[in-house]
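Why does residue order matter? Because the sequence determines the fold. Keep that principle in mind as you read this record.
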Amino acid sequence: MAEITLNVRMLGGFSITHDGREVVLGRNKSAKFIKVLQIVWLAGDRGISKGQLVSRIYSDQELLTNLSNSLNNLFYQMRKQMVKSGLPDYEYVVKKDSMFMIDEKTEIITDVGLFIDFCSKGDRASDTEEKLAYYIKAFDIYIGELLPENASEVQVITDSALLHKRYARVVQWLGDYYKDQKNYPQMYRIYEKAAKIYPADDWQAGQIDSLVSREMYKDAYDLYDKTVRYYKEELGIQPTERLAECYNRMNDHLNSGDRRLSDIQEEIITLRSDRKGAYYCSYPGFVDCYHLLCRTMERSGQSIYLMLCTLTDYNGKPIVNRDKLKLRSEELQGVIKYSLRYGDAFCKYSDSQYLILLTGLPYEAADIVSSRIVKRLKETIGYKVTINCSAASIAELPEQK
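Structure:
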């Protein structure tokens, strides 16, 4: 019979709580003995074999002369840290019939287990209100992907994919339910949370749908624009069919009956309310700006320059670390925005490159602009990065010739 109860969170991170107090097992959150606990507790009543446990704890590069001693040492470290954290001196992980199991003295309640249980009960429920209650509980428990610290491990990837699939089914059911009930704020909340956890799963379309249903067209357009940029700039893919349908719904509103020019102008201004710094747009929008200016240039003779800014490390080499590159790219975006004139346009071509359109300037001014960007970048983040800028007159580009 269990003598203590531990509540374990594995979704969106890992933590242990006992009697309302968080249990801290040392400073090293990636310690192997912690991984042992995660694996055994996640397996639950099924347990896990010695071979499976070893293959998940130790890499192929780690040569173990005495496997049993290595495991015993891990279990010793685990119990030592458990006691040090204020918990009783129990085994916590025991071996039964060649399987490693949860110690009977300990009741382990995991958010993963609760999520699966609520999903299963919701699936079996024949009454809509009962199904709703279980699905809401499952939805609220799911606050992130399974053990993100171990996201690259094969078994975690497999388990995470199965949980992801269940979560998607719950989200879709709840979204459809609240839409049928015309409870659009709650519908938005469901899709908003899902989109934060899985931004590439198209849940933003549900958010936009709920905003359009409430006639919140500016918010819907802003979210659509932000999502399309994310898909293009971060994922390198085109907007999904569901997003296209949302865009068509917004267009249906804009095209519903004859309207006055002043009303249309006010709506256009509202949809693009950012009035600070240069004009930042998505790459497709930048292409439209480029071709429009090309046509204007032929008639007016105004000089137009296309500039490319490439971000590198302080040695002039590509930034390999993706997280660092993304951070530096966001910083560069702000630098460019406030280094250009109000009437200039720019876009993010990739995490390491930005494109700029400069209008009505002599060629020498392009060098001044690039120097201004470099100077402001150094003032913002120091000498950790370098930026290379090159410019060419649109009139001299091959297609114009």
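The first strand starts at residue 4 and ends at 9.
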